[in-house]
Structures are given as C-alpha cells and as structure tokens.
Write a structure and sequence with these properties.
The chain is mostly helical. It is built from 11 helices and no strands.
Length: 239
C-alpha cells in the first residue's frame, strides 16, 4: 500500500469511531422526543445496526448491545409513538437522572473531575453554558472523544502525521485516565437496573465499544511505535 492509501484507511477509521462516539453521546444527553423516536424506529437506523452487526469485529458486549437495541426497535416500532415516548422518557429519567442510580458523572463515582476540564481546555473544548449537565457527564466525555476523532480524521486527510498521532495519544490517555475508570462500572449498574432493552442495550454497547476502542488504540500506537523505530536511519539496513 502507498502512504496515501494508509492515510485514507486511518481517516476512515477515525471517522467511523467518531460517528459511534457521537451516537452514544446523543443517546445519553438528548432528551427523548417524537423526532428522536422516529429516527430510532426508522428502517435506515435498523439497517445501520444490521450492517454493523455483520462485521466480524463486532463481538461480545458490543454485539449484545446492538442486538438488544434492535430487539427494542422491533418490539416498539408498531406501537403508538406517544406510548413509546412516555415509556422511554420515564426509563431515561429513572436511570440517568439520579433516581435509582448515581448520576452518570465522573465526579459522582470518583470524587473529582478537574482532569476532565484540563483535557477539554487543551484543545479549546467548552461545554455549552445552557446545559444542565456538568462537564464530566458521561455524554460529554463521549462527545469529547467524538471531537478528538473528528480532529484526527481531519489531520489524516491533510497528511499531518504528527498532529494525527498526538490526537490518537490524547484519545488513549483520556480513555485510560478518565472514561475507563468509571464508565464500565456505571454501565454494569445500568444494565442490571434497566427494564427496557433500549437502555440495557445502550449499557452493553457503551461498555463493549470502550473496551474495543482501548484495544484498537493500544494496537495502533504500538504498531506506529515499531514502524517509527524501524524507520530510524540507524535501523535501516544498508545495501
């Protein structure tokens, strides 16, 4: 493969990861409404899920989560939208508004969130002032990863290798230092407490995707480190 081919592959991977982070963020942050449910129940959304499930890399909790969400869609698509909206809203409030579970914020689970704000400020990210949720809310941490993936994709597209690798490193650090230390445990709690397959699936999908993404970032950074080491002048075999 040529360098340009690798850049296109890396661009596509970062873009795909960013889209899934964005979708997960919306499911945690966006209050349900009729438009939300119409999108969720659309044939297009179901086809997207089926397409993802067909990929050989989709296994374990990632696949279980998508299957549960698809099951929810199949069971509720034919019912009245008003009834579905009422049930989903009640369930979301119960699980994500501190009614039966600790609030989905890092500081609630780990006691402080100053490090989160530090990561945000490094790349000029600010949480909207009109939001009800704090900066360390699960949905915002997911959206921060969406932003970083988008910036990484742009760097690959522009051929800026140094910037792209710095962004990959930042994603890896944020995932390890913040997201992975509390979100998987929260997802386990949400899965056990949830009554709707939509939120049981969301819990599995979130936990599974974070685990897969951590492995992917580790493998990518390890591979790039080896490639850069081999490319050093002293390691290039002379003819």
């Amino acid at each position: 493969m040529k360098v340009e081919d690798y850049l296109r592959v890396f661009y596509g991977l970062a873009s795909s990861r960013g889209r899934l982070y964005g979708l997960l963020s919306q499911l945690y942050v966006r209050p349900p409404d009729n438009e939300f449910l119409k999108e969720l129940f659309s044939r297009e959304f179901e086809e997207i899920i089926s397409g993802i499930l067909a990929q050989p890399t989709i296994t374990g909790e990632l696949g279980e989560g998508l299957e549960l969400i698809r099951k929810f869609i199949g069971e509720w698509r034919g019912k009245a939208l008003r009834e579905a909206l009422e049930v989903v809203t009640l369930e979301r409030n119960r699980l994500l508004k501190g009614q039966v579970l600790p609030s989905p914020c890092e500081s609630t689970h780990k006691g402080e969130s100053a490090g989160v704000a530090g990561f945000y400020s490094r790349v000029g990210v600010r949480v909207p002032e009109d939001t009800e949720e704090p900066p360390d809310h699960l949905g915002f941490e997911l959206d921060f990863m969406r932003f970083l993936c988008g910036e990484e994709a742009a760097a690959w597209r522009e051929g800026d290798l140094e910037k792209a690798l710095n962004l990959v490193g930042m994603q890896n650090a944020f995932l390890k230092q913040h997201m992975k230390i509390w979100i998987p445990d929260f997802c386990d709690l949400m899965f056990e407490e949830a009554k709707l397959d939509l939120y049981r699936g969301l819990a599995k999908l979130t936990k599974g995707f974070l685990s897969q993404d951590e492995r992917l970032l580790n493998e990518f950074l390890s591979g790039m480190a080896e490639a850069l080491e081999e490319a050093k002048p002293e390691n290039i075999e002379k003819v």
